[in-house]
Specification:
The complex is a heterodimer.
Chain A lengths: L1 H4 L3 H19 L7 E5 L6 H9 L7 E5 L3 H9 L5 E5 H10 L3 E10 L3 E5 L13 E4 L3 H14 L7 E4 L5 H7 L4 E5 L2 H7 L3 E5 L8 E7 H6 L1 H20 L1 H12 L3 H9 L1 E2 L3 H8 L7 H13 L18 H4 L2
Parallel strand pairs in A: 1-2, 1-3, 6-7, 6-8
Antiparallel strand pairs in A: 3-10, 4-10, 4-11, 5-8, 5-9
Helix pairs in contact in A: 3-10, 7-8, 10-11, 11-12
Chain B lengths: L4 H56 L3 H11 L5 E7 L5 E4 L17 H10 L3 E4 L6 E10 L11 E10 L1 H52 L14 H55 L1 E7 L4 E4 L1 H6 L11 H7 L2 H17 L3 E8 L5 E12 L5 E10 L1 H51 L4 H31 L8 E4 H19 L2 E5 L6 E4 L1 H17 L6 E9 L2 E7 L7 H6 L20 H11 L3 E7 L3 E9 L27 E6 L3 H12 L4 E6 L2 H11 L3 E5 L7 H10 L8 E5 L4 H10 L3 E4 L4 H24 L1
Parallel strand pairs in B: 12-14, 18-19, 18-20, 20-21, 21-22
Antiparallel strand pairs in B: 1-2, 1-5, 3-4, 4-5, 6-7, 6-10, 8-9, 9-10, 11-13, 14-15, 15-17, 16-17
Classes of the chains: A alpha/beta, B alpha+beta.
Chain lengths: 327, 793
């Protein structure tokens, strides 16, 4: 029989090859929709937009949603309107507490002054805040900043009137005189400053406590790890660009954030963009460094009643992903 | 490439799978594309329409921040690439990308200010797929703006919500699904094809290959092969049928081999037999000096057996046989004869049987006998001529010797006969004179003692004549020249005749002669003269060898178809030894009876004569009592021959006393004979006798005298009697003259010859006077009648 078939072997082989090609095409899985990344205005997130602007991300692979505020971002992540999101550590903890399965991919920045409490010029000290209206974003970070502020001011919640609102409206609220102080962050901080407000308290006073992270849903992480790894790589690529082409980077970022050069530099001073090595240290290894502030934050949040149970950030960290952080 | 079922069917299935997959893909894609276009359009339109309303509300509230939020959230639809709100001057108020805000809308993607103006003018949304990018939905929605700043006039400002949505990824997804579906379908079909191919391979092809291989093995001659196709389907049946066929072929072959073996053995036996037979045949041919040949007419191919070569003086197979070679071998003198015989055999289908000589290469001449037959076809044309050649030289030599011996013997016999004939003539001539003149003397008146002397002379003469006649008869019998003329002979007359003749002999010894039994009335088949001769011999013996006053008795007894004539005597009898020698010629039993006249050949002659007449002769004798001699002759039956002639023995009556009327010419050289005839004729008185001593004179006288009768001696010097007769017959005037031959040649042959040539009668010497006178009377009477007739005329 083999002998009989031998003249056909070639034809059979060809047919088999073609079939296999189709089969492989089918096995590749469906053409993946671009990774959806939701983000809100914040200097620490700007390298993402810069990366898009520079063409590092590729329109086909990453779809960057520019949402007006962090609460919308968090909400969109929670309801899975997006795959990835730029969120603060406290938001991450809250999401974890609520049962959202997620992964921390990257520490985008560490706030070092970019988060601030802006107050009307007549409020000079922290103590002056007593009895005043404080607008704040209704996100854990806002609560955290408030608690740190009140702690620093020696006041309690009852001492102030809290007006929760989306940070995108802080500026408007302040200008309308509906708030005396605003717990906000860049770039709204600069805009408030432009509106005459001054910094009463900022994150430089509480260093290494406010982290901005890039998150991903657990299932997306499992399914699209390579793309995610590539995206993370592009982040550091963009950081390199900012270092190598600071002027162009500044110009691009300023335009988007609608700030001038001075304001840009001021803004950037308020944040620290960790290098890949720092990221590895914070997220890799047997004992990721991020766990320390995360535990501390979680403790505070429990005290504040923002978390009702223990949340272990370790669950969100995959030390193996550190290989994607290495440059 | 040959189309094989096992390839064709799977190939068709594969092609079907591929085509089906492609069709499925195409159909799925078409359906999905339509659905996506409709659904995506519908959903986006819905979202954007909602946004349009929300924006209207937010903007009328001057709540740009909320409007932004709403727009951003709406833009989270992955299909939406661009979503922006432009004011009446086509300047971007809000966009899903902050970067575009406050800039001119025209710089964004495919935003068309003309179309935007038209939408604003008509206050009607325009949503359609882009003409360039078919998968991109482009929409312009009018939005009433009411800006917080409120600068300028409060007049209604109308902006445009611009939308760009791509369904490319949906389509890609749909395509992928279509591909997957098509692949799954094709895959299942391919799997089915492979399954079918495998099934065909294992259920059909492999078993077919097995069958094919088995058939090829079978074709190569291996009968042990079996297809051994398993299963119970059609192929298995074919396989089983094949195996059965092979089994049958095997059986058949085995049977055939057995038959062949048998045949081979038979052949060997046959060859051996053929070899044996061939050897035998060759041996037979060599021993018998007989070879055979075969000539095929159509091919002219001639085959010689080895012996033919040897007979022809060659080594077997020395050369190619040919008719020319054969012809050259035949003795030239015999060639024509051989050709004629062959021709006859060839054309008339006769047997070719011939003796002829052959000339051998060494010059020797040998005799061969050829026998050949032609095998003819239906039309009578010869197909094959085959025959034998036998060397008969030795036989020929013997035959030649035999022939020579025979010729010699015949010559000797002839010489003897001539001697006897001459002797009898020489003896008869003087006897003629003695007896003739003795008879004349008896007629004379003589003294008593003279008469006794004459009587004695006559007796001795007669005895001598009898002796001579008997010797002559015996010689004739031995020469086979004695003619027997059988006829019905009444015994009574014959016996009486014999007794009359013998009675005078019995008188001197006073012997009583008698006849006993019934001899009268019996008629036998015999030669009358010879039977009489035998009876006379026996009767005279019975008288001669009898005692004084003895008795001789003749009796007849019928024995079956024969009659026994017995003659008893009262003689001394014969011993058995004597009886044994009795019928031998020239044996005389008793030397002491020398006184009794006897030739010693009487009984021997009788025995021969009786034998010639189909009879028997014998003797019963007792010494001292007597002897009985007997003969047995056949009875005449109804279909017997002519009645015997009337006895001619009449005593001549001298009745003629007429005057001399006739002229008779006697041509005779012997004077004694001539004188005797003169004296006999003188007794008639009416005859004038002319005498001639030789033929010539006789002829002269015959012409001159024209006699009524001529008496012609045959044994004339110079011109013999036959010649004289010829001359007489040649002559006109002498032709009618009757001529009577007178000769000492008493042989029947001579008489026959004489009758043939035209003699009126034939008389032997010594002349019987009675017979002579009788013939003379008869012929002269005839002549007289003729003469009278002539005269009357």
């Amino acid at each position: 029989m083999i002998k009989v078939l031998s003249p056909l072997r070639h034809a059979w082989a060809k047919l088999l090859a073609v079939s296999l090609m189709f089969l492989l095409a089918g096995c590749e899985g469906p053409p993946l929709a671009p990774l959806r990344v939701a983000s809100s205005p914040w200097p620490g997130y700007e390298p993402l937009y810069l990366a898009r602007d520079l063409g590092y991300l590729g329109d086909e692979r990453v779809n960057l949603f520019e949402l007006p505020s962090a609460d919308i971002t968090m909400e969109s992540f929670r309801n899975r309107s997006t795959d990835l999101a730029t969120l603060t550590l406290d938001e991450v903890l809250e999401l974890m507490h609520d049962g959202t399965k997620l992964r921390i991919l990257l520490v985008l920045d560490v706030s070092n002054g970019a988060d601030a409490v802006m107050a009307r010029p007549e409020i000079k000290t922290l103590a002056d805040l007593k009895g005043k209206r404080i607008a704040m974003e209704n996100i854990p970070l806002g609560s955290y900043m408030l608690s740190r502020l009140l702690e620093a001011a020696g006041l309690t919640r009852a001492d102030v009137t809290i007006i929760p609102m989306s940070e995108s409206k802080h500026d408007l609220f302040y200008r309308q005189g509906k708030a005396d102080a605003v717990i906000t962050f860049e770039p709204f901080k600069t805009r408030l400053a432009q509106a005459g407000a001054h910094v009463l308290f900022d994150s430089s006073r509480i260093p290494n406590e406010i982290f901005d992270l890039l998150m991903v849903h657990e299932d997306v992480y499992q399914a699209r790890r390579d793309e995610i790894c590539q995206l993370v790589g592009q982040w550091f690529h963009t950081l390199d660009y900012m270092r190598d082409q600071p002027a162009d980077a500044a110009a691009r970022i300023s335009r988007r954030l609608r700030v001038n050069a001075t304001e840009y530099h001021e803004m950037m001073r308020g944040i620290h963009l960790p290098s890949s090595a720092e990221n590895v240290k914070m997220l890799g290894g047997a004992e990721p460094a991020l766990l320390v502030p995360a535990r501390k934050l979680a403790a505070i949040m429990r005290q504040e009643g923002q978390l009702t149970g223990p949340v272990d950030a370790r669950m969100a960290i995959d030390p193996a992903f550190a290989e994607c952080l290495v440059r | 490439m040959k189309l094989r079922i096992t390839v064709l069917i799977p190939a068709v299935l594969v092609v079907s799978a591929l085509v089906g997959g492609a069709l499925l893909f195409w159909q799925t894609m078409r359906a999905a594309s339509g659905t996506i276009r409709q659904d995506a359009l519908g959903q986006v339109k819905l979202d954007v329409t909602r946004l349009q309303n929300v924006l209207y509300n937010r903007l009328t509230e001057d709540n740009l921040q909320e409007a932004r939020l709403n727009l951003s959230v709406t833009a989270m639809d992955p299909k939406i690439r661009t979503l922006l709100l432009a004011d009446e001057n086509d300047s971007v108020l809000l966009a899903n990308r902050y970067l575009w805000e406050s800039g001119p809308a025209a710089q964004v993607s495919t935003y068309d200010p003309v179309l935007a103006a038209r939408v604003r003018g008509s206050n009607t949304a325009s949503v359609a797929y882009d003409s360039n990018e078919r998968n991109v939905l482009v929409g312009y929605y009018p939005v009433i703006l009411k800006l917080e700043k409120g600068r300028g006039m409060p007049a209604k400002r109308i902006g445009v919500l611009y939308l760009e949505a791509s369904i490319a990824s949906e389509l890609a997804l749909a395509r992928h699904e279509a591909i997957v579906r098509a692949l799954v379908f094709s895959g299942i079909m391919l799997a089915a094809s492979i399954l079918v191919a495998l099934l065909l391979h294992f259920l059909v092809s492999r078993r077919l290959a097995r069958l094919t291989q088995a058939a090829q093995t079978l074709a190569a001659g291996d009968l042990q092969v079996r297809a051994n196709v398993t299963g119970s389907d059609e192929l298995a049946q074919v396989g089983a049928a094949f195996d059965e066929m092979v089994a049958r072929i095997k059986d058949d072959v085995r049977r055939r081999q057995a038959v062949r073996q048998e045949l081979r053995e038979l052949n060997e036996t046959l060859e051996q037999r053929v070899a044996e037979r061939t050897a035998l045949l060759g041996e037979a041919q060599r021993i018998g000096r007989i070879g055979n040949w075969s000539w095929d007419v159509a091919s002219s191919r001639l085959l010689w057996s080895d012996e033919i070569y040897r007979i022809f003086g060659y080594e077997p197979g020395a050369m190619e046989p040919s008719y020319e070679r054969f012809s050259a071998t035949v003795h030239p003198d015999d060639l024509e004869r051989v050709r004629r015989s062959e021709q006859a055999a060839f054309s008339q289908g006769q047997r070719h049987s011939i003796d002829h000589r052959i000339l051998l290469p060494d010059g020797a001449i040998r005799w061969v006998h050829e026998e050949a037959i032609a095998i003819l076809d239906k039309a009578g044309n010869a197909i094959t001529l085959s025959g034998t050649v036998q060397d008969i030289t030795d036989r020929k030599l013997i035959e030649e010797n035999l022939l020579a011996a025979k010729v010699e013997a015949e010559r000797a016999n002839l010489a003897k006969s001539e001697f006897l004939s001459r002797m009898s003539h020489e003896l008869r001539t003087p006897m003629n004179a003695i007896l003739g003149f003795g008879q004349l003397l008896e007629l004379e008146p003589l003294k008593a003692d003279q008469a006794d002397s004459v009587q004695e002379i006559m007796r001795a003469g007669r005895h001598l004549l009898e002796l001579i006649n008997e010797i002559l008869d015996l010689a004739s019998i031995e020469a086979g020249r004695l003619a027997i003329s059988e006829a019905e002979v009444p015994l009574a007359a014959l016996i009486e005749e014999c007794l009359t003749l013998v009675r005078p002999l019995a008188v001197p010894k006073d012997i009583q002669l008698s006849v006993a039994g019934s001899c009268t009335g019996e008629t036998v088949l015999a030669d009358r003269t010879r039977l009489k001769q035998v009876l006379l011999n026996l009767l005279s013996n019975a008288v001669k060898y009898n005692r004084w006053q003895g008795a001789a008795t003749l009796s007849c007894t019928r024995r079956d178809e024969r009659v026994r004539i017995s003659i008893s005597d009262t003689g001394p009898g014969l011993t058995p030894e004597q009886q044994a020698r009795l019928f031998t010629p020239f044996e005389r039993l008793d030397t002491d009876q020398a006184a009794i006249e006897g030739t010693g050949i009487g009984l021997a002659l009788s025995k021969r004569l009786v034998g010639l007449m189909h009879g028997e002769i014998g003797v019963d004798s007792e010494v001292g009592v007597g002897s009985t001699f007997w003969i047995e002759v056949p009875l005449a039956t109804r279909h017997a021959l002519l009645p015997a002639a009337t006895p001619a023995a009449e005593v001549y009556q001298d009745a003629s006393d007429s005057p001399e009327r006739w002229t008779v010419l006697c041509i005779e050289d012997n004077p004694a004979n001539l004188r005797l005839i003169e004296r006999l004729l003188a007794r008639r008185g009416d005859i004038l006798l002319h005498r001639a001593g030789n033929g010539e004179t006789g002829l002269e006288m015959a012409r001159q005298t024209l006699p009524a009768l001529i008496l012609l001696d045959i044994n004339l010097p110079e011109m013999d009697g036959y010649e004289v007769l010829r001359h007489l017959q040649a002559g006109e005037e002498t032709r009618h003259i009757p001529v009577v031959a007178i000769s000492a040649n008493a042989m029947a042959k001579d008489m026959e010859r004489a009758g043939k040539v035209g003699f009126a009668d034939y008389l032997t010497k010594p002349l019987d006077v009675n017979r002579f006178m009788h013939v003379l009377d008869k012929l002269l009477d005839q002549a007289g009648v003729e003469m009278r007739e002539t005269w009357h005329e």
